[in-house]
Design brief:
Radius of gyration: 14 Å
Helix content: under 10%
Largest sheet: 5 strands, antiparallel
Structural class: mainly beta
Shape: globular
Order of helices and strands: EHEEEEEEEEEE
Number of strands: 11
Number of helices: 1
Number of domains: 1
Strand order of the largest sheet: 2-11-6-5-4
Distance between the termini: 40 Å
Oligomer: single chain
Length: about 140
């Protein structure tokens, strides 16, 4: 069984260029304004995958508790809409933890949000589909 840890937002992650989100563009009812602003730099392609190989994943950045940006080592970007929302996932003092029996991180896998100081679980959720994003020029 493989065990992986990813820092949550703000913990040494690469900065993304933020652009204003046009009304209705990439905004979902449960999406934070900050997530919409970050995602305004991308277009949804409609192409989805159920799993990504963990060796392909470079970074998982929670934009808010429900919308996560996943970058692969070759620069592909995906949006993952996690179930229910992971409490505290987008805070800088937490990290993401998961254990998987294979080398793939798939829809339905449970992710735990862990507090850096206390190592206590702050929340957990299941991954959704990975929807490929295309940068807007």
């Amino acid at each position: 069984m493989l065990r992986f840890l990813f820092p949550a937002a703000g913990a040494g992650l690469a900065a993304l260029t933020l652009q204003a989100c046009a009304p209705g563009e990439m905004m979902e009812p449960d999406m934070s304004a900050e997530a919409a602003q970050t995602l305004a730099a991308y277009a949804l392609t409609g192409e989805t995958q159920s799993c990504l190989s963990t060796i392909r994943i470079d970074e998982i950045k929670p934009l808010d508790e429900r919308h996560w940006l996943v970058e692969t080592v070759n620069g592909d970007m995906y949006l993952n809409r996690v179930s229910r929302g992971c409490s505290g996932a987008d805070r800088s003092f937490t990290y993401l933890q998961y254990e998987i029996p294979t080398g793939r991180l798939c829809r339905g896998e449970i992710i735990r949000v862990i507090d850096n100081g206390s190592n206590m679980v702050q929340g957990s959720c299941g991954l959704g589909e990975y929807e490929r994003l295309s940068p807007i020029e």
